[in-house]
Specification:
The structure holds 2 protein chains of 2 kinds. By secondary structure, chain A is an alpha/beta fold. Chain A has 10 helices and 10 strands. Chain A has a single domain (6-265), classed as P-loop containing nucleotide triphosphate hydrolases (Rossmann fold, 3-Layer(aba) Sandwich). Chain A has helices spanning 53-60, 82-88, 104-114, 119-132, 149-161, 179-196, 207-213, 231-238, 243-251, 255-265; strands at residues 6-20, 23-37, 42-46, 68-73, 76-78, 89-92, 167-171, 199-204, 216-221, 224-229. In chain A, a hairpin with a 2-residue loop joins strand 4 (68-73) and strand 5. The termini of chain A are far apart. Chain B has helices spanning 2-21, 23-46, 50-83, 86-91, 96-125, 135-162, 164-181, 196-199, 203-215, 236-267. The chains are: A alpha/beta, B mainly alpha.
Chain lengths: 266, 274
């Protein structure tokens, strides 16, 4: 049997939160989560803010060390083989983190060099990716701070893909994008999966996006993976007509209401 | 090896372009460094005491070099946290030693440029004649001191890893303390007695002491026309201490950084960008 590209078993991660003088409480960001993703599969993690999606992606990206559990990415386990894992993953986070004064070209060439690539070869590949994402070449020399959020996010996707990673970790890549940019990104990811066979782990709030892109979906609530399966299977299990209702029925939470609450709380 | 060289170049490439884009601020910082150094040196000129002027000039010049080197290395992590790019640097398959080597090399180039600007400025503001100074000896001391200061910079760079906001403050407090105790502009024996032992653990103390001897500061044989710079053998003691400090601080700084990085990954401290 083929080994999954991503295998997560009994993963737990907690954070200590100060509640008073010499008083702390423990908050479970990821609570005994297990799932696996086959090679070439797109797996979606759905959940409101604070459900543990980003913590999970950050553990898989080697940016967080779990308290316990097992993580194996294409045969490399974490946290022991961080160096090897870094060579096979590309990550896009919700905030396009760049040197905002530098141009897209300068930011991307910096990343290429950081990954030990030849600048000239990387530049050709990046231009191809950006063209596929519907971005004009002329924007390549524009400082990031002068670009829209949608454009910045496309550059962020190009950055993750320029190293041609077999594993792509996408943390809410289309949040805050206009409908056109969102469609561009979604179409690109579909083409990427078909052409390169890239394994994709995607977190999102967008049920339609999850339904369109993901072969299987996991519902996360309070750090726990409460249900997983195909969109159709989840709806059938919940006796719901759509994924929104299925999420509410299976997690007992309203994704939209929680989302608004979290935003106000921020 | 080729990969490591490209990765090292990445940090020089990044530093160059950031400097280019922030050139206005770079000019302001260099202007400020020049003006503060000239202001200090002019105290000696006003006193019509060339030995005092030379003491202050050497102090200002070396402090500019060492403090810029320290500051650029220690703040490099803070800059990345403010930009929000630190996670991406930490996620790249680049070893921490190559990462910090790249950062240190760029900081070194920056410090050299600033020091040259300050030196040229000081020569315009004072009638200093450096004939007779042991300049090759000064170069040797600076090379050895650089290692110790890179080590100190690496040590201080862990503060911004621990906390985006407090970390940057801590690096500046540490830098200020070095300025206070190292005898940059005055002899160490004017410090309060309880503070004087602290000067012994600052590498800047030995750099300044050695360089002043090599410039001929305090030598009865020095005249305004011809300085009596000491030979390199006269500063063997300082050189040995500086070399020892470099040999300890460099690996210790790197090791501390790696440990703090692992701690930040366990506690989730990397996420906040400040």
């Amino acid at each position: 049997m083929q080994q999954p590209a991503i295998q997560v078993r009994n993963l737990r991660k907690s954070f200590r939160k100060r509640t008073g003088f010499r008083k702390h409480s423990e908050l479970w960001a990821v609570d005994n989560v297990s799932f696996s993703v086959a090679e070439g599969e797109t797996y979606g993690l759905l959940g409101p803010n604070g459900s543990g999606k980003s913590s999970l992606i950050r553990i898989l990206s080697t940016l967080l060390i779990a308290d316990s559990g097992e993580v194996n990415l294409l045969g490399h386990s974490l946290p022991e083989q961080q160096e090897e894992v870094r060579r096979i993953i590309g990550r896009v986070s919700v905030d396009a983190a760049f040197y905002k004064k530098l141009s897209a070209r300068e930011n991307l060439l910096y990343t290429a060099l950081l990954y030990g690539q030849k600048a000239r070869e990387a530049e050709v590949r990046v231009l191809e990716i950006l063209e596929e994402l519907g971005m004009e070449n002329a924007k390549f020399s524009t400082p990031l701070e002068e670009m829209s959020r949608g454009m910045q996010q496309k550059i962020s996707i190009a950055r993750a893909l320029m190293i041609n990673p077999p594993l792509l970790l996408l943390d809410e890549p289309t949040t805050g994008l206009d409908p056109k940019s969102r469609r561009d990104v979604q179409s690109f990811l579909e083409r990427l999966r078909e052409r390169e066979g890239t394994t994709i782990l995607l977190t999102t709030h967008d049920m339609a996006e999850a339904e369109r892109l993901c072969a299987r979906i996991g519902f996360l609530a309070h750090g726990k993976l409460v249900a997983e399966g195909t969109a159709r299977a989840l709806m059938r299990r919940a006796g719901a007509d759509n994924l929104d209702d299925a999420f509410i029925a299976l997690t007992g939470e309203d994704l939209v209401a929680d989302e608004e609450l979290a935003t106000v709380g921020d | 090896m080729e990969t490591a060289m490209r990765q090292t170049w990445a940090f020089l490439f990044r530093g160059y372009h950031i400097t280019r884009r922030y050139i206005g601020w770079v000019i302001v910082f260099n202007f400020y460094a020049l003006v503060t150094s000239a202001t200090v040196a002019l105290i000696g000129v006003a006193a019509k005491d060339y030995q005092m002027t030379l003491t202050l000039v050497v102090g200002a010049l070396l402090w500019n070099y060492l403090s810029w080197l320290y500051q650029e290395i220690s703040m490099s992590i803070a800059y990345e946290r403010w930009e929000g790019t630190l996670e991406y640097t930490f996620m790249a398959p680049v070893s921490r030693s190559v990462h910090l080597l790249g950062v240190s090399l760029f900081s070194l180039l920056n410090s050299i440029v600033t020091s040259v600007i300050v030196l040229l400025g000081l020569m315009a503001f004072t009638d200093l004649n450096l004939r007779g100074a042991n300049l090759p000896g000064v170069f040797v001391v600076l090379v050895v001191s650089t290692l110790a200061f890179v080590g100190l910079g690496l040590f201080a760079a862990v503060f911004p890893v621990m906390s985006a906001e407090r970390g940057a403050e801590a690096t500046h407090i540490f830098q200020g303390s070095l300025l206070l105790v190292s005898g940059v502009y005055y002899p160490i024996d004017v410090l309060p007695g309880w503070m004087q032992p602290l000067s012994a653990i600052s590498p800047a103390t030995y750099t300044l002491s050695a360089c002043r001897k090599l410039f001929g500061v305090g030598s009865p044989a020095s005249t305004p026309e011809l300085l009596a710079g000491a030979p390199l053998s006269a500063v063997t003691h300082e050189l040995l201490i500086l070399a020892l400090m470099g040999a300890i601080l460099l690996p210790l700084g790197l090791m501390t950084f790696v440990r703090v990085e692992a701690w930040a990954k366990r506690t989730g401290k990397l996420k906040r960008t400040g």
